[in-house]
Amino acid sequence: MSSLSPTARVILGMLKLGVRTGYDIKKAIDVSTKFFWSASYGQIYPELKRLRESGLVRARSQPRGKVKRTEYTLTKAGERALHEWLTDTESSIYELRDEGLLRLFFGDLVTTDDVLANLRARREVLELVLTRFRAIEPEAREGFAEEFQLHPYLALSYGIGMLEWSIEWYAETERRLEKGQPLTERIASATSSE
Amino acid sequence: MSSLSPTARVILGMLKLGVRTGYDIKKAIDVSTKFFWSASYGQIYPELKRLRESGLVRARSQPRGKVKRTEYTLTKAGERALHEWLTDTESSIYELRDEGLLRLFFGDLVTTDDVLANLRARREVLELVLTRFRAIEPEAREGFAEEFQLHPYLALSYGIGMLEWSIEWYAETERRLEKGQPLTERIASATSSE
DNA sequence: GAAGGCATGTAAATCGTTACATGATTTA
DNA sequence: TAAATCATGTAACGATTTACATGCCTTC
Q1: How far apart, in whole angstroms, are the C-alpha atoms of residue A173 and residue A171?
Q2: Interatomic CA distance for residues A137 and B19, integer angstroms
């Protein structure tokens, strides 16, 4: 069992990848893990403080001109804790909170038009995210090719694939609801294939 | 903009579907929306109290023998608030927290064997959940056929499809990593298809 | 010289889980 | 009669967001 707090997990990993300041950790999260593991300043700075107090990271003041700046690096204990968590196959948080699905679940309480409006709205949001992911993709691919960073690229590819699948599901469900035959073959075909 | 708290959203919806007590709301969530919208007793009971205080629900004591029991129903204001939220296409929470993906993201920091162990562990968890979903499916299908509750069934079908997609992605990624050629066509084919 | 980015942090509020406490009723 | 289920709730803790505050540096 890993005793690292949720935010500590991503912080230690980012430090090990070479990110140095709280500010940069936040930026790195926002362009990479945010989709499946986000964190705000209000979590990052206090957590860095706690991690230093418990000896998992060390802090060095590295001002740039007069801008105060604190660089963090992993201690031996920090390296150990990170490795322990990364190789722990027991713990396995999976949480999804999806307001679109909740509204769909309650769809019997509103009209079909209301349901359709929500499906479309949700699909449009997903399409926006997908567009952003595809825009990052060439960059991530280069990161893989030039810095041998395969895994961030793999995670991105998962995100892209999942969004594509979701968007297609929404589109298909919209089509069926529009035609008034929203049913049956979906699950039948889905469960028989693979 | 809906002012309903996250837990209030699922509570009001469940009340409208005919669920009556805090205890039953929790049970209903656990067999239906839990996958994408969960709640614990520690949220449900205090929230019911708040909803009563703000006039969105009304409480009636309906003891069964000596077991105290409080039944809740929506007030007019509660119906309005629920309907407003259900037909609001603006707000749209989408949050995912997936420890497996975070570990995969940091995969460059460990050995390929460690990554593979984590992919397999995660896939096994997903397979368990999928098994449970498939077990509920006939029940949900009946609920649709007999009580005209289409939408819970649709949400379940989304869950099943998404899990199938994820599991296949994991299996495929494992195969590629095992062969040492984890790459390239995946995204190429994923983005070109569809 | 204004805007935007760099950089760090705190306070308040909200949200959520877990563990605990209590006691009745039903089922094996 | 023991275990499971029904039923309600609180306390402590932990996680998280949002808004605020501060001030330097760089770029337009």
Answers
A1: 5
A2: 46
A75: helix, coil or strand?
coil
Give the residues across from B71 on adjacent strands: B60
Find all residues with CB under 8 Å of A12, minimum gap 6, and list them: A4, A51, A56, A57, A74, A78, A81, A82, A85
Q: How far is CA A36 from the centre of its chain?
A: 2
The dihedral through the CA atoms of B121, B124, B130, B136 has a sign that is negative
Q: Mean pLDDT over all residues of chain B?
A: 90
Question: pLDDT tens digits for chain A (194 residues)?
Answer: 468 999 999 999 999 999 999 999 999 999 999 999 999 999 999 999 999 999 999 999 988 788 889 999 999 999 999 999 999 998 789 999 999 999 999 999 999 999 999 999 999 999 999 999 998 888 888 777 667 689 999 999 999 999 999 999 999 999 999 988 666 555 444 444 43
CA distances from B135 to B35, B132, B140 (A): 15, 5, 10
- Global pTM reads 0.91
Query: How confident is the model over B108-145, as pLDDT tens digits?
Result: 999 999 999 999 999 999 999 999 999 888 888 877 76
Q: Are strands A94-98 and A57-61 parallel, antiparallel or unpaired?
A: unpaired
Record the tokens describing residue B124, joined without a space.
């096994």
Q: Can you give A104-166 as a three-state secondary structure string?
A: HHCHHHCCHHHHHHHHHHHHHHHHHHHHHHHHHHHHHHHHHHHHCCHHHHHHHHHHHHHHHHH
Average pLDDT in the B56-71 region?
91
The nucleotide minimizing the C1' distance to residue B46's CA is: D9
> What are the tokens at A190?
């889905």
Chain B residues with beta carbon closer than 8 angstroms to that of A9: 99, 102
Give CA separation, B140 vs A31, B146, B155, in Å: 39, 10, 10
Contact yes or no for B109/A13 (Cβ under 8 A): yes
Residues of B in contact with A91 (CB under 8 A): 99
* DSSP H or E stretch at residue A59: strand A57-61
Nucleotide closest to residue A20 (CA–C1')? C7
What is the distance between the alpha carbons of residues A140 and A138, in angstroms, rounded to a whole number? 5
